[in-house]
User: Fold these one by one.
Assistant:
Number 1:
Amino acid sequence: VKDALGGVQSVLVLGGRSELALATVRSLDVRPGGRVLLAGRDTVALEATANDLGRDLGAGVTVEVAGWDATESAGHAAFVGQAAAKLGGDIDLVLVAAGVLGDQDRSETDPAYAATVLDANFTGVAAALLAVAGQVRTQGHGTLVVFSSVAGLRARRANFVYGASKAGLDAFAEGLSAALAPAGGRVITVRPGFVKGRMTAGMTAAPFATEPEAVGKAVAAAVSGRRDVVYVPGILQAVFGVMRVLPRAVFRKLPG
Ligand SMILES: NC(=O)c1ccc[n+]([C@@H]2O[C@H](COP(=O)([O-])OP(=O)(O)OC[C@H]3O[C@@H](n4cnc5c(N)ncnc54)[C@H](OP(=O)(O)O)[C@@H]3O)[C@@H](O)[C@H]2O)c1
């Protein structure tokens, strides 16, 4: 992930318009000569995002875009190979940020819709992680950042479809971390709480709500440091340590 001076060289963002991922890239030390590839569904919108990001990262850093849909799992392996080629051969850092909050009420009456939420957040992203893992094994190095959520630590009545998808992704990241370590790969699991931004627009902020920039800084610190599980804000580690062991009857009475 780092050049001789500690900078990042090549970054693939899966979910290229994610506020949390973009805040992370802005907090990373991407050196001149570095390359960033923003991958997502809407390549026209991504071009504008790439222009803004390129301006912020400064001359000498190349920001490109590529079409990619998390739910099109059959194409993930070929896509990762093409992404590596675009990034100069190796992918040092992959930010896996694709995801949707989904509409819980609709999920409960429309199972096919619920499946699209589960696919975008878990099935498709997990398949993409396996494709990236293949690339890491070939390279012998690489860091994967997986955007999980505290919502996956104990599913709540109000958003259990999303919570379950993140629980699956979180468990997957834990196992993949163990699988890739002998091959030189590293997996960082990020568990943000409520982040004020696009995904939560119009919602009442939860306790300990944070901002995308705080998430970006915490993730960048983890990439250059040693922490492999990151809560943002950090206090949520203790809060959810308690949440997970509360008796069910008590947990259900909590607001939200
Ligand atoms: N915001 C929060 O409060 C919060 C808290 C905890 C965890 N997280 C997790 O952190 C990650 C990033 O969240 P964020 O706040 O940055 O959200 P965001 O700004 O809404 O970004 C989500 C990204 O996922 C992309 N995406 C959705 N479905 C996709 C699909 N099928 N294929 C490809 N890309 C797809 C979106 O693409 P489009 O631009 O095309 O829609 C968007 O770029 C998500 O996994 C989210 O669940 C967020």
Note: Residues 15-21, 40-42, 69-71, 97-100, 120, 147, 149, 192, 194-195, 197-200 surround NAP (CB under 6 Å).
Number 2:
Amino acid sequence: MISEKALRELKKIYGKRLKTDAVHKIAYSYDATRIEYEPDAVVFPINETEIIKTVKLANTYKFPIIPRGSGTGFSGGAIPIKGGIVISFSRMSRLEILKEEMLAIVEPGVITAELQRRAEKIGLFYPPDPASLKNSTIGGNIAENAGGPRCLKYGVTKNYVLGLDVVLPTGEKISVGKGLQKNVAGYDLISLFVGCEGTLGIVTKAYLKLIPKPEIARSIRADFTSVRDASEAATDILSSGILPAALEFMDRKSIEAASTYTGEKVSAGASLIIQIDGSEETVKHEIERVKKVLQRHNLKGIKISMNDEQEEEVWQLRRSISPAIATLKPIKVNEDVVVPRSKIPDAVDFVYAIAEKFKIEVIVFGHMGDGNIHVNFMIEENERERAEQAVGELFKWVVAHGGAISGEHGIGITKSEFINLQLKKEEIVIMRKIKSLLDPNNIMNPGKIFQE
Ligand SMILES: Cc1cc2nc3c(=O)[nH]c(=O)nc-3n(C[C@H](O)[C@H](O)[C@H](O)COP(=O)(O)OP(=O)(O)OC[C@H]3O[C@@H](n4cnc5c(N)ncnc54)[C@H](O)[C@@H]3O)c2cc1C
């Protein structure tokens, strides 16, 4: 519980932008996990100086600080599990694009889709595309190292971060990288902060790489009898020297759910969505090559986009999975494990087997090209314990088969009990030493990633 004295000091910094009423405490108590812990207060800084002052106060009065973007996180990263002050960046959303440098300079509260829209307006492109992009912030994307369908070809958020301004947990400000395209002087501190889930510092400004916008994008939806056929087709596409922008898959149940939701009648054991982008000529040529490869793999049906309107239609089923499955059961336990791509069919078989064992419904889809599978256990409240056991078995299988327990959503609080399964003891020792070096008073987003 934060002291009255500390609150008075915060009031001096923020005035009316310090909120301690019940509405704000509830509104900032949860994220997409729906787990709830109320903060003592929420603040809305408008500049870095206010953040520095806040962090210094936190060290003096020993209260936790929880950076927060839009709260779309799936691992509880922005939840104030130990109370303290939530820092919302909704009033820090300035965005500047330097066209000649192909660089965007953004504050943390910029919405991902807004950066993409502004870049595309002048022929540039910011590829990382989490499905939450209409709501998520760049600060949250950097803290979680967010990915998305296009990351197969273009890489994840970290591949676009050329510099960061960070307020450290002790209140000093550092600038790392400064937006240069190349820079190998010293340790790579940018990588330390990208993906740190708000535990090592507060990002106050990011320098992001932009690239030329591809001329067009066209996609194929290919339907198969089984996930194994779809997986073999995906491997064949990639080993034929074609690198799609996206290579997504859906299992039978996700196809059924999306099909019922959209009214588009499709029946298949699995489907792939393969997106090719580039110049018109290249795309035309590569689409033909992909078609030939697909025909080697028990193809059941195929739908190809020839224009922008059809492009939307081809993606319709894939984009509808989340809202479609949300109607099936009240709770979605959503995991985003990664396996080596060749192990996807075995992983999916294992998921079906544990769902059968624990008598719960499961829906699987995801980024086939990256080996990143979204496993959704769809449950009622009284099935929660069984779902947790199923998740435990899934994580053990994934780690035993050379995979990772999270490819996109981070560890946060939902997976922190499994971090020892994933990381070796020596790795955890190094990470904990980094944390205590930067944050000796453990004020920055405490209780995340590692259990205390
Ligand atoms: C429908 C849906 C679809 C999704 N799809 C994807 C997907 O395809 N790919 C993917 O990767 N994720 C996805 N996510 C998860 C989520 O959107 C991402 O993790 C996103 O990056 C979180 O952004 P946010 O602004 O909502 O951050 P929040 O949830 O508010 O915070 C996330 C973490 O970032 C930290 N943080 C926020 N701002 C800062 C800052 N300025 N400095 C330091 N730390 C900070 C927080 O402390 C917290 O630990 C999805 C979520 C939903 C609800």
Note: The radius of gyration is 22 Å.
Number 3:
Amino acid sequence: VLVIGAGVVGVVIFQALVEAGHRVTLVERHRVGLGTTAFSGGVVRCLHVDETLTERAVLGWRYYRDLCRAHRNAMTFHRTGVLYFPTAARVPWIRRQVARLAAMIPIEWLEPRVARTRFGQLLADCDEGVVWEPESGYVEPGEVVRGLILKGQAKGGRLLEGVEVRGVRWAGGRIVGVSTNTAPLDADLVIFATGPQTPGLLDAMAIDHDLDNRMVQVELRAPDGDTGDHPSYSDEAYGLNGRPDPASAGMYLGVRTDVAGASAVLPGPIDPQQSAIAIAAGSRRFSWVGASTTLGGVRSPECFAPDPHGRVCRLAGSAQLLLATGFNGAGFRMAPWASGEVVRLIETSEFATSGRAMA
Ligand SMILES: Cc1cc2nc3c(=O)[nH]c(=O)nc-3n(C[C@H](O)[C@H](O)[C@H](O)COP(=O)(O)OP(=O)(O)OC[C@H]3O[C@@H](n4cnc5c(N)ncnc54)[C@H](O)[C@@H]3O)c2cc1C
């Protein structure tokens, strides 16, 4: 099996396939983890806008928690806790979800009065109440991808860096591998985990898709004063998300980006217009944002699909081509679900029965 792209999605898939007994090569045109993954906040939390995403996110939360427990010298799960602010209209649904999830994960609903008592020094507005996930938080993307690569290599997985896949090779009506900037590589199955390069790659191969790229920007703000143990957060009402950055004593502040940029494939400096939008929205939720100052930030392309469920599927044109991308800004926490889905797709395909893809 050939996995193209060593971002978090490709690396988690690589490790899962090696673990499942497949013979796997992971191919990366640059170095491991330097695509969109290098810009990720690594926030891992559970409650999402619908039950499907929540189920997948719970899987991701357990995965990173257990991974960090098992490799505590190399990786840390930073339990900042996560606040999830719903819109007023969704409060009844959200409260039902919290009641359902409370049997499975640490989660509780905080009435406005309780939220103000616990987090009042941080909040400008908490009129609707808020969901509290005390055991959620974030991981450092670099730690996780490096750790997983080592795990996969230790079990026989192969990594090739500096190798760019240029196209798929066919013989006798079947895919037999890929062409690259160096030697061709043989494979029975090819998985595109190519992040924001995916729309361009699929266009070049004349393969149908519904993917697009958007720039995601997250400010790093220095609060004027002590914000204590500020939790990570996600905000349906004002489109915000972020987490603390202990190294700088700053807080990340991201706001939903609605601007599509099909040609956006490279990261760059932060855009002042987008900063102004983030600060305006952030000031409505948090009392510290208005007087905060800039510590810079990050801006990177992310692969989007028209809905938030990601694209983990067979590609049109060949059962030997799989896709894993389009996570709309949540690819880090969705990667563990994606890897399980890829293993399932492979094991229910013709390759499993012929044994051709197995080691
Ligand atoms: C600023 C920001 C903050 C975010 N914060 C969070 C967060 O807190 N939590 C969360 O869950 N998600 C977050 N996300 C989303 C998450 O980071 C991404 O969904 C995820 O990192 C995407 O990983 P990937 O492996 O699909 O893509 P990438 O990391 O871009 O990896 C794709 C890799 O494929 C390689 N590649 C591409 N084409 C080829 C080729 N032809 N041959 C060989 N290699 C190739 C690239 O070089 C790259 O290394 C954030 C995103 C951004 C931009």
Note: The longest strand covers residues 293-304.
